[in-house]
Amino acid sequence: MEFNPNNPIIQLCMQGMARSEKGEIMEAGQLFSQAWNNASNNFEKFIAAYYMARHQTNTANKLPWLQTTIQLALELNDNTAKGALPSLYSSLAECYENRGDEQRATECRKLATSSATTPIDAGPFYHGTKANLQTGDLLTAGYNSNYKDDVVMNHVYFTAVLSGAGLAAELAKGDALPRVYLIEPTGDFENDPNVTNKRFPGNPTRSYRTTAPLKIIGEISDWTHLTPDELKQWRQRLANSTGEIIN
Q: Which of 24, 56, 203, 231 is the most buried (most CB within 10 A)?
């Protein structure tokens, strides 16, 4: 199931995160519980269970929610869920350590290591930018970040979600028209660590990065642009962001 930020369960979890960041812990917990109770499929349950686990403050409550989240991830068996498994198993290992169960903690640490695999995604893949590119051109690393002027990027980024590439294009620096290109990676790639297991478990936005060039296959014209209001809100979020780019 493709990640959709407008999904009502995702919206509830995002509201819960916002409340939690404000220190409104009880209200956040109510929103996460509502998300879990309203979830109608395994993907929604997986997202909601992840936040229920993260919200718990003691091992006794956290452990069963982690177990539920892992079970749902294994049942989903897709790239989004698989990307969350190393972090989930590591958290479960901590819970067992806190209970003095070193044997199970060791087993979970081994599972965390073995589940950290290279992403398998067949695409299609997209890249959003304001550069005017032609079919056959190569996108390479080594340019300044679109979001932090003083950062030279060691990787080039892309996504398998068209709307994500559109958002990147709209937020890119400059006054040129935002453009989305169909691209082909020319080398190995990895999950983007700037978003993987950050606000959502795994890599639901299917965002990747590579040190190898991306080949332009063609331009995509049929993608949904942000409204002026939405673009303003996203730019404000970026301006207020204090996170460092993992480069």
A: 203
